[in-house]
């Protein structure tokens, strides 16, 4: 069993996966910083600093009016936190847009750096079936 495990670990796919996870974690930090530190403040200015996170409906239990979502949850009440969901959807869309822009930029830069390959010349075409049959016929006649 140890030999199988060693063979599994030694395959390139495991190392590539590990590198991908590490790079992904670092990339997540970059994207999160871009969204939280650069884009969200601009959106906050545009929409007047509205934060939907504390919007909720109380389904059961007693919650004093005007308290935040965390306080309502701590009181033991069942809350329908639609504002937190809306903010999660907005943040997802922003992150997806930033990732799209970053990938698009990287792809364009890579296309500019890597030389374009010239199309391969067409291979010479061989004789058609009819031409081969005619050649065989002629060879048979000449014998």
Write a structural description.
This protein has 143 residues and is mainly alpha-helical. It has a domain at 1-48. Helix content is 66%, strand content 5%. It has helices spanning 2-10, 12-46, 69-74, 82-113, 129-141; strands at residues 57-60, 78-80. Strands 1-2 form a two-stranded antiparallel sheet. Helix 2 crosses helix 4. The longest helix has 35 residues, at 12-46.
In short:
This protein has 143 residues and is mostly helical. The protein is built from five helices and two strands, in the order ααβαβαα. The radius of gyration is 32 Å and the shape is elongated.
Largest sheet: 2 strands, antiparallel
Summed up, the helix count is 5
Structural class: mainly alpha
Query: In angstroms, what is the radius of gyration?
Result: 32 Å
Sheet-strand content, in percent, reads: under 5%
Name the helicity range: 55-70%
Number of strands: 2
Strand order of the largest sheet: 1-2
Termini gap: 68 Å
Average of pLDDT: 81
Question: Which descriptor suits the 3D outline?
Answer: elongated
Give the uncertain stretches in residue-range form: none
| SSE order | HHEHEHH
């Amino acid at each position: 069993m140890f030999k199988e495990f060693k063979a599994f670990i030694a395959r390139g796919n495991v190392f590539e996966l590990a590198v991908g996870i590490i790079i992904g974690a670092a990339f997540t930090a970059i994207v999160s910083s871009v969204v939280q530190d650069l884009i969200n403040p601009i959106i906050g200015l545009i929409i007047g600093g509205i934060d939907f996170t504390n919007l909720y409906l109380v389904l059961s239990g007693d919650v004093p009016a005007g308290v935040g979502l965390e306080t309502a949850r701590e009181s033991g009440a069942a809350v329908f936190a639609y504002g937190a969901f809306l903010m999660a959807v907005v943040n997802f869309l922003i992150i997806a847009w930033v990732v799209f822009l970053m990938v698009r930029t990287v792809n364009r830069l890579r296309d500019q750096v890597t030389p374009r390959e010239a199309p391969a010349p067409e291979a010479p075409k061989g004789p058609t079936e009819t031409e081969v049959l005619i050649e065989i016929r002629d060879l048979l006649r000449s014998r």
